[in-house]
Amino acid sequence: MLVYDLGGGTFDVTVVRYTPTNFRVLATDGDVMLGGLDWSRRLVDHVSEQFKQKFGEDPREDPETLQSFSQECEDAKRQLSERAQVPISVYHKGKTLTVSLTRGDFERMTADLMQRTKDTTELVLQQAGIAPEQLDDVVLVGGSTHMPVVEQMLTQVCQRKPSREVNPDEAVAQGAAIHAAILEARATGGESRMGKTIINRLRAVNTTDVNSHSLGVKITDPKDKTRKTNHIMIPKNTAIPHNKSQRFVTTSDNQQRVHVEVLEGEAADPDACTLIGDFRVVDLPANLAKGSPVELTYQYDSQGRISASAKELTGNSEASTEIVRDSGLDATGVEDAFESLSRDYKVE
Predict the structure, then answer these.
(1) Which domain holds residue 246?
(2) What pLDDT does residue 132 have?
(3) What pTM was estimated for this model as a whole?
(4) 293 inside domain
């Protein structure tokens, strides 16, 4: 099953293999800088340029007018999902402009945005090792999936028409409600009839998630000692929990410390990745020879925590760090929530 999620501000695609008792994420990817607002902004820019050409003023320079234009264009975008053509009337400093816009015009001016979602969809299918004809369902999530061009693109890529059995506008809320019911059942011990039903159901359910970005370490490039490179320890779309150990070597004689920089991203250039944590192994043995072994271990658990440790194997000096993703709960709330879930809800 492929889940295509185009919301207001972000975009994600996930391929999941599922049975009545097992959900396994095969691959996931997305674009946190792409969402329905980008389609709306294209309309704002289009109408604003039309206004500027006619009246010689750029309405986007006035915050109140920009807000008004944005609302008009958002409404027009939604109407174009149902109608072939809509008028957009805007007002600025006593001047009014009406622009007639067709669905075809709108799709042409946003074609590059749709292409980005298409590229990601094809990439995720490739990473999952799933051919389009192997998909049993394509699920739409997010209000922006009401745009007809979304369904047209997915029908072409996935070779099947997307399902609308789940309301795209309500899918995330429904998922949150189910998750809340799980937490409530765990917190109360399943005292209610619904709670008991949920607990019994979850005892038979097993889920497997994957990491959405590769985890690497900055090292000296073996092919070019003058530059650094991102050495990937845990590739993206690896089933979690997962741990990986690998040996590296010191790069100079009498090295006093080892600096470990934990990177997130797929690029070979460390500057193109995100530094999510670092630590140092200090007090290495005196006169330590160049090329002495250092063992690095990465661990990614099912709750999103990333642990990294390094040990210099000659003098056994070691250090470690733990990286916890930020969320809406404080540390205690996260720990309590996952502890209650883990009693019967097994996540691999």
Answers:
(1) 212-323
(2) 96
(3) 0.71
(4) yes
